[in-house]
């Protein structure tokens, strides 16, 4: 009997030991999955504000026996992926300024499902350009709710161990500004090693004081960039004005590229300042040119430098009218850029607010980093809902309609002259860039009433490459006074859009 008791005791001990091992193993696995759930997602970080475009969703591949991962954005399945390597990556594209949720779901080989914690991140198009000399010395990019920056260099401020460490955690976009002692391949290799996603290319190659390259030379450089780019997405060279208006540099450069070279241009980098300001229509015209660039090249757009400034026109920060003009321009243009899905990013150029000629376009003081009123407006615009943005008590909204049609309708048409002839009048019209045609409207009524007695008619005429469009309207009633106005129209993506009517001209027909 005593022997049986000893045997039973031994069996019980072994059973308890074995069950303990199972329990310990279960606890270990539970701890492992709980740890993974909380630490799975590497980027974007919780509540991070990041630049629009291509976004890397990264997570740890440390769970054992994973059959597949599922990537969810805002609760919607975006990708199913097999495990590979230590870190998994899914590329997500968006230009919507909003908050997003991200979650990774791991399906194990035993059909167990393990979910990561849900994380929030926020997307903005808004960036900033700074140099190491003075522009980046004191400013805090977080004060303007910035999602990315560049510094006209292939190395970031952190790479340079720059004194202002407030840029260190902000997404950096490198640039190959021009020819350098470090060749293109090494600069691209460096950017790839650092994990940068984009590469901006030659800055103002059409200017002697800037990167200064002839179009044919730039094509060779572009080929070098393509050969060396690795995983980088390349931005176009940034001419000193809108590419679509750069007939002497951009047009021959682009036309000389083959299709493969064009395909390797991920986005168009627009570098264009507004040199004058009349009224709100000026801002809408700026947006219209952006629309035309996209309509022609069908590539996403970054506006890497823009502001209201010109060597001939003064925008003095101590002049209330100048400040109001620049502020209105910013409000309207930023609204339009944020609305356009093909605009990925933009970056305002901060002119020194101390400068009496351009300072009205300054958004912060170089020496202190303090925001101007314009800087506070910049900070308030383009922030995704739900993001804990820095807010300022300045008016930053506009009621202006910034749709494509409204922007085309802001483009003026100018009539040089209307001259009376025998039962006719002749006209001379200033050509409108990229107009598909014109409408000449004439009437016996100055309000162009459509009532039959006023004989209001509209004649469509085709556009030509000439800078002046001349013509004649015949078979009119002699000795009658006619009112005449003209407008251009454009065809964008197969749809006709009308420009603004010209001022009304009055002409009395001869016998």
Automatic annotation (TrEMBL):
Where does the source fall among the domains of life? Bacteria
Query: What UniProt keywords apply to this chain's record, in alphabetical order?
Result: Signal
Family annotation (Pfam families):
Glyco_hydro_cc (PF11790)
Signal peptide interval: 1-24
Q: Where is the Asl1-like glycosyl hydrolase catalytic domain?
A: 129-378
The protein depicted here goes by the name Asl1-like glycosyl hydrolase catalytic domain-containing protein
């Amino acid at each position: 009997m005593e022997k049986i008791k000893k045997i039973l005791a031994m069996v019980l001990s072994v059973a308890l030991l074995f069950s303990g091992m199972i329990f310990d193993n279960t606890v270990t696995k539970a701890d492992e999955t709980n740890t993974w759930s909380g630490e799975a997602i590497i980027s974007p970080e919780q509540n991070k504000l990041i630049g629009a475009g291509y976004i890397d969703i990264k997570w740890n591949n440390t769970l054992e026996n994973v059959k597949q991962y599922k990537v969810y954005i805002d609760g919607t399945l975006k990708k199913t992926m097999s495990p590979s390597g230590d870190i998994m990556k899914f590329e997500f594209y968006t230009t919507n300024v909003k908050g997003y949720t991200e979650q990774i779901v791991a399906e194990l080989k035993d059909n167990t499902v393990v979910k990561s914690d849900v994380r929030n991140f926020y997307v903005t198009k808004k960036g900033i350009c700074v140099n190491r000399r003075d522009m980046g010395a004191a400013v805090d990019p977080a004060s303007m709710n910035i999602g990315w920056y560049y510094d006209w260099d292939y190395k970031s401020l952190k790479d340079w161990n720059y004194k202002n460490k407030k840029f260190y955690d902000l997404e950096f976009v490198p640039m190959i500004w021009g020819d350098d002692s470090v060749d293109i391949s090494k600069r691209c290799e460096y950017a790839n090693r650092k994990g940068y996603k984009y590469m901006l290319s030659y800055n103002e190659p059409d200017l002697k004081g800037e990167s200064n390259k002839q179009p044919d030379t730039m094509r060779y450089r572009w080929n070098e960039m393509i050969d060396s780019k690795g995983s980088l997405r390349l931005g176009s060279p940034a001419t000193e004005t809108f590419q679509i208006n750069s007939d002497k540099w951009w047009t021959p450069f682009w036309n000389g590229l083959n299709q493969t070279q064009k395909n390797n241009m991920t986005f168009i980098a627009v570098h264009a300042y507004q040199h004058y300001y009349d009224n709100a229509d000026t801002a809408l015209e700026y947006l219209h040119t952006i629309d035309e660039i996209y309509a022609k090249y069908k590539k996403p757009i970054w506006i890497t430098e823009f502001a209201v400034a010109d060597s001939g026109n003064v925008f003095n920060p101590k002049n209330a009218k100048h400040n109001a003009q620049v502020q209105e321009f910013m409000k309207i243009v930023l609204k339009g850029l944020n609305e356009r899905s093909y605009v990925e990013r933009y970056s305002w150029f901060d002119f020194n607010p101390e400068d009496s000629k351009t300072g009205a376009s300054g958004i912060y003081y170089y020496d202190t980093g303090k925001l101007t009123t314009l800087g506070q407006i910049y900070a308030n615009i383009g922030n995704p809902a739900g993001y804990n943005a820095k807010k300022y008590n300045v008016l930053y909204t506009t009621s202006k309609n910034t749709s494509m049609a409204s922007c085309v309708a802001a483009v003026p048409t100018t009539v040089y002259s209307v001259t009376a002839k025998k039962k006719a009048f002749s006209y001379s019209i200033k050509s409108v860039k990229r107009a598909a045609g014109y409408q000449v409207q004439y009437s016996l009524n100055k309000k162009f009433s459509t009532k039959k007695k006023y004989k209001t008619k509209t004649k469509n005429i085709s556009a030509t490459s000439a800078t002046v469009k001349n013509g004649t309207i015949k078979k009119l009633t002699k000795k009658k006074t006619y009112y005449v106005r003209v407008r251009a129209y454009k065809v964008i993506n197969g749809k006709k859009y009308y420009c603004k009517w010209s001022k009304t001209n009055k002409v009395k027909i001869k016998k």
